[in-house]
Structures are given as structure tokens and as C-alpha cells.
Amino acid sequence: MHPLLEKKGFILDVDGVIGRGDKPIPQAVEAVNKLISMGKRVVFVSNNSTRSRRIYMQRFKEFGVDISEEQMFLTTYVTATYIRQNYGKSKVFTTGEAGLAEELKLAGHEIVDYRDADILVVGSNRQISFEILTKALRMCLDRDKIYIATNPDKIFPSEDGPVPGTGMIIGALYWMTDRMPDCICGKPERVIMQQALEYLQLKAEEVVVVGDQIDVDVLAGKNIGATTLLVLSGVTTRQNLNRMVEKFNTKPDYILNDFSELFD
Question: What is the pTM of this model?
């Protein structure tokens, strides 16, 4: 038995681990279902800032993974929850798509034009426009406005290769304003990981953090003191592994070609 199977809980990334975009990685999905059947506590933590949990539930059904909404910690949901916990119900302008707006509204926030907003929420938008970026720029320049980003990902894995992540917008705003977000809710920061641990009701040393990116998933695990597993089925591959380890000066505790090898 693989030593990681002695752990009580698993915090799993989604894209690059059990799927690529809307397409599942069948052997990895089977491995997840084995973990669940063994009684392991499993949650999914994703930096995807375009989807709501409701939308993701449909994807998981199509993948063949039977979980509840409560087991999904998407940056859309985590960001909305973080704002409510720290600032109460707020007036928000967001660069994000409908999935982020949905979670913000479900948390009691009001989506408004940038002139009326107290909080700027930056998330990915596959239809980002000059107008949206201009509004975000103007809010970012106002230091009295709170600036929160869903996640820092520079690139994101899709079915046919990498695409720009939320970091594209964060980077553009920083280039124009010299300002970084007041809080980044997604991995590798602690906000999203702490929410996941609280749900699991486990200590960090009792869980494994699984992902496909060293600077996002592995670092997130390191930041909370958990064991880390890197899978080479997403952004990080066998070809670029050494370069990524050197670039980010971070080594995962374990490396597998894909998540199914946990049971080999």
C-alpha cells in the first residue's frame, strides 16, 4: 500500500488532476472513487474562478464522481465567503464571469458598477474587454477601495493546452498601478486551504494536498504544513519538472505520473 493511503484526508485539485477542462482523466477519477469507498475524507480545492459550485456539480456528475457541494472549495465560493466573513454583505465590482457573480450573490453581496462598489474582485474572464479592464484600473487606483483576487494563477490547463489565468489581470493592474491585491483567496494562499481544513476537521499533518502545479498546489500544501503530492498530468510534466522545481525552489514530497498511480 502506498504510504499516502495512511492519511485520513485528501485535498485535491481538479484541473490537471482528475480532468482537463470538461474532459475527465478516467483512471484518476477511478482513484478518487476508491479513496471515497475507503472512507477517506476528500475535498476538492480549485483555483478555477469562472465556475460556481452548482456548475461544477454538473461536471463532477459527468465525470462520475459522487460528492456534495460542501466538498467543493472553488475560489469563487471561497472569495465570496471571505468577503462576507471580513466585510459583511458588500457592494462589489468584479472582472469575473457569471460563475463568480453567482457565488458573490449567493453570499449576499450586490454586484454593482465600479463607481458604486466598495470592493474590487478580480477573477478570470474569457471575454475580458478594454471596458472591464478600465473599470478595474480606476478602482485599483483608488486606495480607499478594497482589492481582492480570487487566485494568482498565471496560466490554466484546458483540453487543448494552457490558457491565461487570473494572473493576466492581476499582472496588468500591477503594471499600471504598482498595486497588488489586498488579499488573494486561492492557492497557494492560506484562505482557501484553511476553509478546506475546517470542513475536513483534520489537522494539516493528517492530509495530503494533491495538484499539478508546484507554485500553486505544492506550495499551498507546504504553507499549511501538509504532505504534498505532485501529479504530472497537468501543467507540470516530466519534461519541465526539473525546471519548475529549480524555478520555484520547492520540492513536492511525492511525485506520480497521474493520481491513479496511488493504487499501483
Answer: 0.91
